[in-house]
Design a protein that fits this description.
Length: 632
């Protein structure tokens, strides 16, 4: 029992080792993909996936709380560029007659522009709901611009944009320090703050976060250094991911001319947020953003970006529209690893090329659907690295496993040829040679003709080895050749096969076995439901070897017992004789030839036990294994 348990656990440990070995390429792939993400090599692909999902979201309704007054090409042709200060003053005064909540002027006015400068200064001083713009962070050329000089600081917000390294804008800077280390708020945040004041909602700081901001219970989720696909990014100040409103025309846009000529519905202005900015290509006030499903793909005017940020903040506070959040780094990498392990499982379980592709496509579809659904409700989770881990570990590793199996199969085929060759030599020529040597060494007075006859027999048996191995190689799996002239049908019950082996060996060595007066035989039905064809072949060879050993070693045998049956829940093959072969039990333990090693290996495969025992006189050679299902 102890030996059997030891065998079982040895096989378990071997199985665990093999599983670890075949899992190693998959773990290497997962590690490589995780490292690629950690150094930022997958940022571009992840941004592209993010932009695609943002465009694929269901269409949202137009935000009628915001109106954009876009100064277009017609306005520029009529007024000139830049638009004169006097026309800006008239526009502001006109808009205020409709009583908007707040007006944002996204037009540079740090210096006088043409005529009407005094009128504009007066308008700035009298318009308390006006927010102007400045640029506080220098660009590569060091360029900044000041706010309108007549506006107080509390009526100014910066319009600096954060552009990712692929040239697109996905983030909005809400707060930062200027060159004088003064904390400043952004233009869209100031507009949203003024509007929300009318709803009794005020801007506050977040506890334990000096850069955090919130409106009542609504926290503006701040971008960190590692945030989603952003790796080691500059997260200075207070930044948020822009949750662009998905609509081809998310806001109403009217022209300067339409305002001047009273062609705008007053209800579009009254109680609303008004943004004034350039919507002319010649003004070049636009950025790239592939996340927007707009009339001009990938291009969006600066004033429209500001409107999206204002809408995002206001909608988050009043409508509970989600901000874009991400998981902690640990959860993101566990997510990637989990999908990688799913790929490993698919690659190991499914070996059919068409099926592995099908199941990988299905798993990939679920992954994409989950990531899309989470983004819709405000959670940005890693898609690209998880998808790469899934695809590589399923399809690529399936191909690797198939190659590995094919290589193992070729090795096993070659080993099988070697084993079959040795079996063919061991079963007949070596037996004949062994008998001849024993007779010569025992000083028997052999006649020359008798030696010649045995050598001729050996010569014939050696010549038959090639034909026998060739037949074994090309024969059907269910057939087995004991000798060139003896073919066994492996579909027969095991006890019938063993009886045929017994009959063949007796015919082969008739001169020896006919002198045995007492033969005790028992060939009964055995439990073979868990035996493979190879197991049955090996059992036939075992009985053949045991009977041949009686011929070789059991001198003076007068009784032989051959039992092939089921006893006490165990299958047993036992060959016992009363010859004068080995004389002590020590001889049995020391005899470890090829046949013994093969019998021991077969016993391990069956989870059974091989024994060679003293019979006083004679020897017992037996193999037992459980009639119940063995594990391996």
């Amino acid at each position: 029992m102890g030996d059997k348990v030891h065998i079982i656990f040895s096989k378990i440990r071997l199985g665990v080792f093999i599983r670890r070995l075949v899992t190693l390429p998959g773990m290497t792939a997962i590690t490589f993909i995780v490292l690629l993400r950690m150094v930022g090599s997958l940022q571009f692909l992840e941004w592209a996936a993010f932009d695609t999902f943002m465009r694929l979201r269901s269409e949202e309704k137009l935000d009628d709380r915001i109106l954009i007054v876009g100064i277009n090409e017609n306005d520029i042709r009529a007024k000139g560029h830049p638009i004169p200060d006097g026309d800006i003053a008239l526009l502001l005064n006109k808009l205020n007659t409709y009583q908007p909540v707040v007006v944002g002027l996204d037009v540079i006015r740090d210096l006088p522009r043409a005529s009407g400068h005094q009128e504009l200064i007066k308008t700035f001083r009298n318009t308390k709901n006006l927010i102007g713009v400045e640029k506080v962070l220098p660009d590569r050329s060091g360029y900044t611009f000041n706010p309108p000089p007549s506006l107080p600081p509390e009526q100014v917000g910066f319009s600096d944009a954060i552009i990712d390294i692929d040239g697109s804008q996905r983030r909005s800077l809400l707060g930062t320090s200027n060159q004088k280390q003064e904390w400043r708020l952004s233009f869209p945040l100031k507009l949203a703050e003024e509007y929300l004041k009318t709803k009794a909602v005020s801007l506050e700081n977040v506890e334990n976060d000096p850069y955090g901001m919130r409106f009542n219970s609504t926290k503006l989720i701040r971008v960190q250094t590692n945030y989603g696909s952003y790796i080691n990014t500059d997260a200075g100040g207070s930044q948020i991911l822009i949750n662009f409103r998905n609509h081809r025309k998310p806001f109403r846009i009217v022209s300067l001319e339409e305002i001047e000529n009273n062609k705008v519905n007053p209800d579009w202005i009254r109680g609303k947020i008004i943004l004034i900015g350039m919507t002319s290509p010649s003004a070049k006030d636009y950025v790239n953003s592939a996340a927007i499903n707009s009339e001009n793909p990938a291009l969006i005017y600066g004033v429209e970006v500001q409107a999206h940020v204002v809408s995002q903040i206001v909608s988050s506070v009043l409508d509970k529209r989600p901000m874009i959040n991400v998981w902690m780094d640990e959860w993101e990498y566990l997510w990637i690893i989990a999908w990688g392990f799913l790929g490993i499982s698919l690659g190991r379980i499914i070996r059919s090329p068409s099926k592995i592709i099908l199941y990988t496509v299905i798993a990939g579809y679920f992954l994409i659907t989950i990531c899309y659904g989470l983004l819709v409700i405000g959670w940005w989770v890693p898609l690209v690295p998880a998808l790469l881990a899934l695809i590589f570990n399923s399809i690529a590793l399936a191909a690797f496993y198939q190659y590995d199996e094919a290589l193992r199969a070729r090795v096993e085929e070659r080993q099988l040829v070697i084993d079959q060759t040795f079996d063919a030599i061991h079963s007949n020529p070596l037996q004949t040679l062994s008998l001849l040597l024993r007779e010569i060494q025992s000083d028997k007075d052999l006649e020359n003709q008798e030696v010649v006859n045995k050598l001729n027999q050996l010569n014939q048996e050696l010549r038959e080895v090639y034909d026998l191995v060739k037949r074994e190689a090309i024969t059907e799996l269910n057939s087995f050749y004991l000798r060139q002239s003896q073919k066994l049908d492996m579909q027969q019950p095991l006890h019938e096969l063993l009886h045929e082996v017994y009959e063949d060996v007796l015919k082969r060595d008739d001169s020896f076995f006919k002198n045995i007066k007492l033969k005790i035989l028992s060939f009964e039905s055995m439990d073979e439901q868990n035996l493979s064809i190879e197991h049955k072949r090996s059992l036939c060879r075992f009985l053949e070897e045991a009977l041949c050993n009686v011929r070789k070693y059991a001198q003076g045998t007068t009784k032989i017992e051959v039992i092939c049956a089921q006893e006490q829940g165990k299958n047993i093959i036992r060959v016992a004789d009363n010859g004068s072969g080995f004389t002590t039990i020590g001889n049995f333990s020391l005899h470890t030839g090829f046949g013994t090693r093969r019998a021991q290996n077969l016993a391990k495969q069956l989870g059974g036990k091989f024994e060679r025992l003293s019979n006083s006189p004679g020897a017992i050679c037996q193999l037992t294994w459980s009639a119940r299902k063995f594990w391996f």
